[in-house]
Amino acid sequence: YERMTEFVKLLVTENDKQNLVGASTVAGIWERHILDSAQLLRLAPGEGRWLDIGSGAGIPGVVLAILGAAPMTLVEPRRLRAEFLGLCIEQLALNRTELLCAKVDKFSGKADIITARAVASVDRIFAMAAHVATPRTRWILPKGRSGAKELAEAQTTWQGSFRIEPSVTAGDAVIVVGSGVSRRQKGRT
Description:
By secondary structure, the chain is α/β, with parallel strands linked by helices.
């Protein structure tokens, strides 16, 4: 709890310098951002290497790392946001968390669990990170109310085992969960 409280303080302070989260969401930061991120843990298959794409404000990556999701790699291409994430890693002693200040295409390892919040469409996230996934990789993508539609659109290009999970923080929000994700072969549906 102490580390999460410290993270919230760091986030609110940094939000005054750079727009990490919407100003209108700061008052409800614990539910809107912390709980919204924490709920992803229940969808993870257990141990494994996490990859958080477009970590920005540390949501969900830093929240998940504080809660024990490790090893964790935060991927953030914007320098100022990456500097903030580096500060969080150091100040919160997230020893099993690393930072890549680049786009995800520069990540050369493999991930067991991939997450991305407010980054891109489901189709685009699959395309950006397919090179780091294995057939056993679990994709956990909080998508808000557009999730089911985005998943249907992605399934014209991508195949796998997919389900939609309701969010515990917003009645109309969903989380897209996938595994065995691979690009469909041309001419097959």
